[in-house]
Amino acid sequence: MPVIVQTSRMPLTTIFCNRCGQPSGDDAHFCQRCGAPFVLTPTSAMATPYKAPPHYAGFWIRVVGAFIDFLAVFIVLFPVRILTGSIVTVVSINSEMSAHQTFLLSRAVRIAIAVLLSFAYRAGMESSTFQATLGKLAMRLKVTDLEGRRLTFARACTRFFAKWLSLITLGLGYAMAGFDAEKQALHDRVAGTLVLYR
Question: How far apart are CA 196 and CA 182, in angstroms?
Answer without folding.
Answer: 9
